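Researcher: We're teaching a course module on how sequence relates to structure. For the next exercise, students receive a sequence and then see the predicted structure as C-alpha cells, so they can try to spot secondary structure elements on their own. Here is the exercise chain.
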Amino acid sequence: MLPTIRTALLAAAALAALAAPAAAQAQAAPSEAQLATFIPSQNPNNDGIDYSIWDEAMKNIVVSMGPSLRESAPRPDPSFGTRRQYGHVSRYRLEGTRVMFSFLDRDVIASFSEYRRDLENTATIVDIQALPRNEQLAYWINLHNVALVEQIALAWPIRQPREILIDGVHLDEARFITVEGVRLSPRDIREKIVYRHWKDPAVIYGFWRGEIGGPSLQREAFNAENVGRLLVRGAADFVNSLRGTQELGGRLQVSELYKEAAPFFFPDFERDLRAHLARYSDEKTSALLASTSGAEPVVAEYDIADLEGGVREPSYQNITSNGVSTSFRIPQSMAALLKERETKFQEIIRQGRTGTVTFSNIDLPGDPADKSEVK
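Model: And here is the predicted structure for the students to work with:
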C-alpha cells in the first residue's frame, strides 16, 4: 500500500506543479500593452450590439425594492418555529434591487455562462474600441454584470459574494473574463478600462457588485441609447439612500465604494465627492450635505443582494393573492421581506412619490450633437 500511496502523492504533486504556472498566468495582471487595445478610438464607427436577451432576463429576475425612505429597516422576527434568523437582517434590506437567485435552475444558470461567453466572443467579431463611446460603455457594464450574476448564481446559496473563490482567487479579483485574448477580472473592467477612459463619475453606478451595499442592478440591459439615463437613475437611487450617504455625530458618512473610485474621480476627496453628491441629491440629501462636515467612506453592507439572504430556509409558506392560495410556496423569510416591501410601497404612495417621468431623445435648440454621450 505504501509505495502505491507514495506514487499517487508524487503524481498529484507533479500535476499540481504543471498546473501552477497555468493558474499563475491566468491570474497575472494584464500588461499596459494588453490594456492599450481597449483605449477608445478617436474615430468611432456606427456599429452597435443587441442586448435584448439580457434585457429580457433582467426584467424577469430583478426585483426593485423602491426608492429609499432614509429609514433603517427594523430587525425582523425569527422564522416561525425556530430561533434561527433566516433571510435578510440588514438595515438596508429595503433599498436597491434584488436578484431571484433561489428560483434559478441549472439550465438558466448555464444560459448565463453561455451569454457571458457570447459577449466575450463578440469582441472577436466587433471592434469594441472602435464602437461609439456609449456602445463601448454599455458593453463593458453589461459584460461585468453578466459575469457577476453568472458566478453568484453558480455559487448560490452563499451569504456574501466576496466569499466566492475562483481558482483560489476572490471573485472581484479573479481573471475569468477573456476579451480579445486578455484575461480580465471584474475589477479590471471597472478600474483599468472604464474608470480610466471615462471622466464622468456616474459610471460608478452602472457596475453591480452583488451586495446590498452597492449600486442597484437595473431591470434593463444597458445600451447606447439608455446608458446615460440608467446611470443617472442609478446615481440618484444610491446617493439618496442610507447605503450611499448618512450622518453620524454631525459627520457625513458615505459608501466605501467612493474611496475605491477616489483615485479616478475624487482626487480632492471631500470637496470633489460633495460636489458629485450634490449633483444627484434630493431635498433630504441636500439638507444632509448642508448640515454635516467631512466625508467618511465607512458605509458598507456585504450581504448578497438576493431575496433569501443567501441561505436555503427549511420553512415555507403558501403565497396568496386576493385571498386565494396559489400553487407555489416561498421561504417564510422571503415572504416577510416581500410584505415589508409592500408596506414600504404603500408608504411611498401615501407620500405621493408614485414615480418619475423621464424625457429622452429630445433635441432642443443649441444642444450639442453628442449631448447624450457619457464622457
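Model: If you want an answer key for the exercise: Confidence is low (pLDDT under 50) at residues 1-20. The first strand starts at residue 62 and ends at 64.
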